[in-house]
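Repro:
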Amino acid sequence: MISFELNQQLRHIHLIGIGGISMSAIAEVLIKHGYRVSGSDIKDSNILEKLRKHGAEIFIGHRAENIQDPDLVVYTAAVKMDNCERQEAQRRGIHEIDRAEMLGLIMKKYKKAIAVAGSHGKTTTTALLSLVLEYANLDPTILVGGELNEIGGNIKIGESEHFITEACEYVESFLKFNPFIGIILNIDEDHLDYYRDIEHIKDAFRSFARLIPTEGYLVACKDDADVAEVYQDLSCQVITYGIKEPSDFTAKNIIFNENGFPSFQVTYKGEDLGTFQLSIPGVHNIYNALASIATSYILGITPTEIAQHISVYKGTRRRFDLLGEVNGAKVVDDYAHHPVEIKANLEAAKNYPHKEIWCVFQPHTYTRTRALLQEFSQSFQLADHVIITDIYAAREKDEGVVHSRQLADLIKENNHTDVRYIKDFEEIADLLYHNLQPQDLIITMGAGDVNRIGEMLINKK
């Protein structure tokens, strides 16, 4: 699929939208590999200042004159054909590729490139696996979609043949990757502004699995029936994991401690690998851990080392992220924006010390909210109180076909006794502040800016 190559004839690469979390990481890797890097973004940031210190030339604002004869231009999905820099590159005949293709080209430079795919859990699994490899002295290059304290951000440049990144299925961008090891965590209906249906989504994941070379590995969740369909008839080696179905790697004897963190015994083809303790809550994170354990084992890390290193991980920003306390109640924030993720986080919360659970949910995109409205309405049964705020538009426009009030009404119809729609964040923070009891648990959920509510609430102390 990829016809362009990163080679020594390339000297200067220009990135449009260089300030984004993924593009900035790509820029750092390119600088590390000896390329001259320039780039532009709408506004300045700490990320851009960091890139300047690494030697990148940064332009604030998009202008045609920013294209100073680069050999290659890279752009994000948000940068459309009418962008003045893209138009200037086309006028000059400069080759252009998108962010995903560039990431795929970078992966070709590493013999052990690992791509973590799935509808949910990519960031957590990538982070877990990254820490195991890092602490086992494999010195990987890491690109993770969240802030990981142990590496000081979302990227770490290593010196080895190991490379780890998330592989997003949106618009089939992961089909431009070149993994030696691919991981498929789960498959669900999502991104229905692009995909027709679940069969279309499965086809994309099937194509992703076929990118793995014969000598490579697919690590796949056997408990997910859709994933099990995808890994049939592959030329690469398939390693399965699960809790319910007989798998290569299996977790059993699961116990939750007083903090809601699970420990579990892992077997590999019937052989006992020992007990593993996590420092993050939820059954869904046992699955994420199993994927990381299986991949680490493939790479030759001993079970004892894996268990030691995996227990260190305490989460990334916006993944069951404990922000603080107010009036004796804990405030947690999570990126969950799909019905499956909401249920998983509320199930994790049930094992977390609490009196009552308050869930504040910000739906993400109109297309997702409309397509999965019924599923969303059935996702909050484990919360004692639910507050729905306005839909976060992201890349979309409001065409008036769906509203957060509809979701709140449907949740009420599902016999939920305390649910309300509130538009204003400050009003939500005030309501919580005056109604919380000691030992309550507040979870803000969504992929937009709903985390601001938790920050407002804590600042009221």
